[in-house]
Write a structure and sequence with these properties.
By secondary structure, the protein is α+β, with helices and mostly antiparallel strands. It has one domain: Immunoglobulin-like, CATH 2.60.40. Helix content is 16%, strand content 31%. The protein is globular and about 55 Å long. The termini are far apart.
């Protein structure tokens, strides 16, 4: 009986170790917690049209706060950002995008004085117009950050290919 109990204990301990090791890793030193997620995708004119626009003369964003590089151009490449922190009223939401290898990132920043409506609202950043690239274009790498009025990083999240810790030290 004690052999069966000790074997069961061994298996339970091994299973606990495996489940612990498979958990979500802590954020890397390059990322500052506070950005819950960033989802990216290309949107066509039909994708960004809303049924409510048939009833209203102007575009309606619902719970989201929408930023576009060319405000009146809607098709493009979009980043959907959900924050875990409440940014300061004078803070900025910064998107950095690397289009091609060996080129510096393009930087786009937006005031976060408006907040998405909870619980479903997101910050939506659209690279539109010339910045959207060709219909099949995707960025090589990107980083979304929240900074305060003095430029200090409050939160950030980046794509897998954003850079090495050495690169990120040169913000």
């Amino acid at each position: 009986m004690s052999g069966a109990v000790s074997q069961a204990s061994l298996w339970a301990a091994l299973a606990a170790l495996v489940f612990t090791a498979c958990g979500t890793p802590p954020p890397s030193a390059e990322e500052v917690p506070g950005v819950a997620y960033v989802n990216e995708r290309r949107r066509s004119e039909a994708d960004v049209a809303r049924a409510s626009e048939a009833f209203y003369a102007k575009e309606h964003h619902g719970s989201d706060v929408v930023f576009r590089t060319e405000e009146h151009v809607r098709p493009g490449y979009y980043f959907y950002v959900k924050l875990d922190i409440d940014p300061p009223a004078d803070g900025r939401l910064v998107l950095e995008v690397i289009r091609t290898e060996n080129t510096p990132p393009e930087r786009y920043d937006f005031a976060v004085n408006l907040k998405p409506k909870l619980p479903l609202g997101e910050f939506v950043i659209g690279l539109t117009g010339k910045q959207a690239g060709t219909p099949n274009w995707r960025p090589i790498a990107w980083r979304v950050s929240v900074v305060d009025a003095k430029g200090r990083f409050l939160a950030s999240r980046h794509s897998f290919l954003w850079g090495t810790p050495l690169d990120l030290g040169r913000r």
